[in-house]
Amino acid sequence: MAISTLLVGFGFSATTFHLPFLRHLEAFSLAAVVSSRPQDVKDSEPETQVFPTLEDALDAKQFDLVIITTPNHLHAEQASLALDKGCHVLVEKPFTLSVDDAQALVTLAKEKSRCLNVYHNRRFDDDFLTISALMDSGVLGDIKRIESRFDRFRPKPRDRWRENAGPGSGIFWDLGPHLIDQALQWFGMPLSVTATVLPLREGSESDDFFDVMLRYPTHVVQLGSSPFQAAQTLRFDVQGTLGSFRSFGLDPQENQLREGLPLGDSRWAHRATAAWGELSLETGAEYAELKPGNYLAFFRQLAQTIDSNGELPGPAEAGSIVDVIRIIALAQQSSKQQKTVIVE
Fold this sequence. Notes:
The chain contains 10 helices and 15 strands. Helix 4 packs parallel to helix 5 and helix 7 packs across helix 10.
């Protein structure tokens, strides 16, 4: 039987990063949507029931899975409501805005024996998968430095909740969780955090720039984002004792989702040869084909876990998701105090 799914929110995140997969995979059934814009939902999903609030939806029907795509400051409260009703939960990143809230949700999910998952889809990006394979192979030797960037050219602020003033707004809460999560997947918790998180654009109401260094016993990881990069964007620069690897631009899946490319299309998740990574070893440099990204695997893995207790693709219960929120808090502390913060 298909997983009865409630989609909470119907903005960019819901319609771009979740709805296409719910439509494509027979494992899921979109049972209802919570939205303040019911006509938008009806225009897209005419047969789907719409509720004005999450409380109304949970009181009216029983759902297997609740997917939360609302503004960041609502995540903790809404996830708690869904877990209390016995639903499995998938929360858009960031998981919560505090470590205490994150840990409380993990505890509640265990008490209710429900799956609690966070949408860290960037674990399924082509460059992340490729670098993970290179690390596992040992071809780069011992890793000494990684730079991971998510730059854009957006020199003027836009009027939207992610950029307006308020809890959970700003680029660090938006992109920071992705970059931090990838670093923690590779290396676990660092020894220390040194960060600068600032609004640099004229008229910015929230931060739009960050530079975060995670220090480990034998290497460093540099994470950053700027709204002023108009040239080709460096995504990863991985440096080891035997060689290095660089990739530019973003995994194509987001743009393909924006453009409405069918998930079964032969072009799905593939980059042109010119966008391959650069692998440089003592024997010389070459273009390295990137492993195809696979956001579909995230949802397939989620469905399999709900049906048969497999391994979640972004499990909050594993602890690493809570650690992402912990690093964000330490980075904010470091930036505010203008000093390095030791990780306890």
